[in-house]
């Protein structure tokens, strides 16, 4: 099973619910467990919110989501001036803002940050998918495994 959702969105807070709802609808249709879907929604929201807040020199950004076998890979790409993730400070857990990186790191199975010199940043988030019993995604995953044998 492989599926891709890719959107170029305006750097505006109103764009975040659009991609969240599209991705959640696809994951729900496949029967991905609710907790996994909620984790993915929160990770995605934090990554998009960081672009909206910090990529000031860019008018838009791209979200590319790939569902491949039992993994969800999300890439949030902006074309701002770039962000040095190595120097990012962690906010205290009780802070009202600045906890996005910490939240993404806590929820993602794998996370990568890439700064493209003068061409923005890429946040790549990966999450293993788990399915409800008898879910369509689970049977599609099983058919993938049979084909590989």
UniProtKB/TrEMBL annotation:
CDD domains: HATPase_RsbW-like. The keyword NADP does not apply. Gene3D superfamilies: Histidine kinase-like ATPase, C-terminal domain. GO terms for molecular function: protein serine/threonine kinase activity. The keyword Nucleotidyltransferase does not apply. Signal peptide: none annotated. InterPro entries: Anti-sigma-factor_SerPK, HATPase_C_sf, HATPase_dom. Keywords: Kinase, Serine/threonine-protein kinase, Transferase. It comes from the Bacteria. Residues 10-126 form the Histidine kinase/HSP90-like ATPase domain. PANTHER family: ANTI-SIGMA-F FACTOR RSBW (PTHR35526:SF3), ANTI-SIGMA-F FACTOR RSBW-RELATED (PTHR35526). This is Histidine kinase/HSP90-like ATPase domain-containing protein. The lineage of its organism: Bacteria, Bacillati, Actinomycetota, Actinomycetes, Streptosporangiales.
